[in-house]
Amino acid sequence: MSGKNTPPLHIIGGGLAGSEAAWVAAEAGVNVIMHEMRPHRNTDAHKSSNLAELVCSNSFRSDDAETNAVGLLHAEMRLAGSLIMAAADASQVPAGSALAVDREEFAETVTKRLESHPNITICREEITGIPSEDRSKVIIATGPLTSPALAGFIRNITGTTALSFFDAIAPIIHTSSINMNICWFQSRYDKAGPGGTGKDYINCPLTKEEYNVFTAALLAGEKTEFREFENTAYFDGCLPIEIMAERGAQTLRHGPMKPTGLTNTHKPHEKPYAVAQLRQDNALGTLYNMVGFQTKLKYAEQTRIFRTIPGLENAEFARLGGLHRNTYLNSPVLLDGQLRLKALPHLRFAGQITGCEGYVESAAIGLIAGLFAAGELLQQPVMPPPVTTASGALLNHITGGHIATEEKGSIRSFQPMNINFGLFPLVDIPKTEGKRLRGREKAQARKQALTARALDHFRLWLAHQN
What we know:
- This protein is 30% helix and 15% strand.
- It is built from 12 helices and 18 strands.
- The strands form 5 sheets. It has a 6-stranded antiparallel β-sheet with strand order 10-11-12-13-9-14. A 5-stranded parallel β-sheet has the order 6-2-1-7-16, with helices on one face. Strands 3-5-4 form a 3-stranded antiparallel β-sheet.
- α2 packs parallel to α10.
- The chain is globular.
């Protein structure tokens, strides 16, 4: 069905997500109007007027689709006709197994292809609000540096008290890499809580000597610096763990690392001096986050220091911690399974503002949002990709793949996330005759099984959309 007689799709924001959404919708036959405020109004980070400008790294990370989750997402996006991946492939620079690009060539390629598409009109203007009722569909893909006026509009329609803030990001660890011969499951004082069992946390015990070594390392560790435009103050409730440690040697023992109400099942007669707690981070139980461990330590320092905690010596991190200015929605509460605002279903959100992290993830959610919107306008509904795919797993994280612990209308566990294998349902590893896989071989085999299943399911999903 042609989109000539249908209302246009308005896309606000010309970053990676907005560009991808515009492209796939236009390719489907929908008339698209893109609204990008640059150069009419610049941001503190962008340097040009090109669409899809990369403001930080020039890397799209690993391109290994066999054993890496982001490489798998690359592969799925290529199968779906992604403009972002096509432009990245065309502007690639040497970077080992990673996909890195000449950032100027990449942005120019995206801009030229969007400008030359017959179904796309680009308006260089700032959008500060959207009518509450409109026959047309709208996708807001304005990213972490949404303009103050539009951010205010979003706050008003969502009831969110604040969109721009330093969000506390704690490290997340693959459960399978935690040494349960040292750690144990227990909630403080064995309290079950809503839907709990009394064994809802993984606990890592520290002796006095281990605690002192750990806190000294926190204080000495190299930290990242805030960028000039990141001028929002800390919330006292999400101070970096190293800032807490600066307040006194015992601060952490009376805060996130307090040992009270916990008994080490491996050594029941030895009281831990301090305990690092990990809380389940996704419904599958494949990921646990380090409670209270939000940090501005550099990534290499986090890995080194946090692995000194007993039981985490071989920890594999699905995401490292951070504390930075961000703009994102409490999407599991506000958005439905197709990224529509529940209160105003003609509005969709895409990209980082939905609660995903990373260039590729933002573009992938833009691609899915574009397909959803085009399907509605063309009266050809698009089903969400299976949760067994990278695209579906990421969408599921944003719209429901979290621990649904609600407090005053919010979901505590929802935080921005990169794609990683911890978001996928478990998979059986194919059996090998005469050989028992262990360690690294077993981990590689599991990743290969996950990616093989994902690509099979993604191809089937795409076939059903045509």
